[in-house]
Amino acid sequence: MEQSSTPTRLSGAVRDLASDVVSALGGGDPFRLSGKVTAHEPAGASGDPALAAVRVLGADVLLPAVLHHAPADRDDLAAFDRAVRAYPPPAGASPTSVWSHWAMRQTLMRLDASFDGAPADHLEPDGTWLDDASWQFLTHQLAVLAPLAVPAGDCAVFRAARRRPVDVARGFVRAVRRRDWLQAAGAGRWLVLLDGVPDTLGLETGLEFVAQMGQDDPRVALQVTAARLMRAGAPV
Asked: Which residue ranges make up each domain of the chain?
């Protein structure tokens, strides 16, 4: 039997992990990250696609604990910490990669202060790359950084989104028209947290449409489920 390629294995691991997070957000089976990723292998042992999948989904892996104010399992946090340490942003990494890693570290420390890192872990990365961004580029970057869109979020990326709700709404519409369901779902998640979103957007209907059209991708379901929970105010 021909072995699956690494990209295929990683893609499958990301889909499986996203599906588990969606189930946990919806009140399904308890989510146990430690059942997928061991926390006790060396941080350099990063060939496990389940570990890489944690880095791909980023802080959203811990979203059920964040949105439901539920204590996170200590072994799950240790497994998550292993992914943080195994995949630091390399020199010259893109802003989204740097911010995604920062969000993972901040979420880990938010849920358990004993994972407090070095002083540099508390410092925000540079956010100026969004200052003069076009609305198309802004929406794309925000969608990639959707894990930062959580209640009471306050960072340079969140502030950039707050300054431009109409532009993010335009980006949401553009993503829907381009059938980019993952970008649309990520933009929609930001929009539920922003003031000044045009009523004419019809965000709730738009999210339902995105969920239906992107139903084959559990990452879309993750973003839409998070958006709905935050929009409904349930229990976040």
From this structure: 1-125, 126-236
